[in-house]
Amino acid sequence: MKIAIATPVFYPMINGVAMFSYNLASGLAARGHEVLVLTPSQNKYYHTEEINGVKVVYLSSTDVKVYPDQIHNVEKKKLIYKHGLKASVFPYHQVKRALSGFRPDVVHVQGSDPIGVSVVKYARKNKIPVVTTEHNQPEVLTQSLAIPGMMRKPVNNMLSSYFVKRQKKSDYITMPTKLAIKNLFGDQNIGVPVEAVSNGVDLTAFKPGRPDAAIYNKYKIPDDVPILLYVGRVDPEKKVGLVMRAFADYLYRCKSNKLDKMSKTLFVVVGDGVDRPRLEEEAKNIGVTENVRFLGRVTGPDLAELYKVGDVFATASEIETQGIVLIEAAATGLPLIAVDAGAVAEVCKNGENGFLIKPGDVASMAGAIYKLFSDREFRKKMSSKSIEIANEHSLDKTIDKFLQIYQKVCYNR
């Protein structure tokens, strides 16, 4: 098939939507399909590249300075960023030029940004079937941006209406989880098939096993202490500080009970973002600097190895539509600790492969950390269950499902 994918973020950006779009495009190309990706240019200028067998058309773009680009380092949270996200504001003519030359059998749109809107407009004019995947929830966007609290509800309602209106122009809608579908559409019948399809993870890249010994030296991590791991953006909405405060409570309990090895547990934070400087200062203030490592942004094979270094994975984020890092951690065999919010309950199953805690409950998270590190057999049992659950979210299964959907909408069209 000839498949065009429109996405507001793509390689070299590092976030869930960018990685999903990259993995899907690469996986489809590896199976012999011809794939074209349309995305904003990171250098502002229109150009094309071939990446991993995929033709990528980077459309002319401009800076959106209200949010950092997740490529460059940032010092702290600001209203305006030097390195903001890129957006293609009026991309229709460039979209038309790219798609006219490519002549896709189907288009797959990853968001309701101007590129997605333009691709749908072109597809409708040319009777090309449209599949959309909505990754965002209104609450996720408004928490990420500097919107005053009293304005969030009306803005959320406006965004929700806009998202639903955009999806109705599709032939088939997917979202990563059933809960995400329910949150956006509720019980309304919008007249278009809607299905939950996991973002998927390449299980050949993320799998259990011993890490490469060199990884400990490279990142200055001792190889003989327990590791609590977090991977992801280090931004305020991810609430890494809550995990760190729970970790501090856990250490206090270990020292009070004279559990020497557990008292040496490290909290390893893999990722970067605007909240990192504040968290480094907070680590000093609560006395855990010696037990916390901020590694910054890590990608590629090193990231998979760092998952193997971990013993338990923890996050306090309340805004996940699925949480690719949770699937990656589970695939590596890590028990999970997460907040019972968003859609994480479909990956972190309470009492099976980890613990779900109430939002903001530092004491319960500390207790969960303590339970998993103090009971090795319990931890091993949850590790096995994590691997089993992750197998349900393999990238191969995700690609199989999308190919079925593409074939269905092409047949119906």
Which term fits the overall shape? globular
Report how far apart the termini are.
15 Å
Strand content: 15-25%
Summed over residues and divided by their number, the pLDDT gives a mean of 90
Radius of gyration: 22 Å
**Residues in helix, %:** 40-55%
Could you give the count of β-strands?
Answer: 16
Q: Spans of 5+ residues with little confidence (pLDDT < 50)?
A: none
- The main sheet orders its strands as 3-4-2-1-7-8-9-10
Q: Give helix and strand order, one letter per element, not per position.
A: EHEEEEEHEHEHHEHEHEHEHEHEHEEHHH
Largest sheet: number of strands, sense, barrel closure:
8 strands, mixed
Tally of helical runs: 14
Look at the helices and sheets and give the structural class: alpha/beta
Account of the 3D structure:
By secondary structure, the protein is an alpha/beta fold. 40% of the residues lie in helices and 18% in strands. It has helices at 16-30, 92-102, 114-125, 138-144, 149-167, 178-185, 214-218, 240-256, 276-285, 301-309, 324-331, 362-374, 376-390, 395-412, and strands at 2-6, 34-40, 47-51, 54-59, 62-68, 84-87, 106-109, 130-133, 172-175, 194-196, 227-231, 266-270, 292-296, 312-314, 336-339, 354-357. The strands form 3 sheets. Strands 3-4-2-1-7-8-9-10 form an 8-stranded mixed β-sheet, with helices on both faces. It has a 6-stranded parallel β-sheet with strand order 13-12-11-14-15-16, sandwiched between helices. A two-stranded antiparallel ribbon has the order 5-6. Helix 1 (16-30) packs across helix 14 (395-412) and helix 4 (138-144) packs across helix 5. The model has no long low-confidence stretch (mean pLDDT 90).
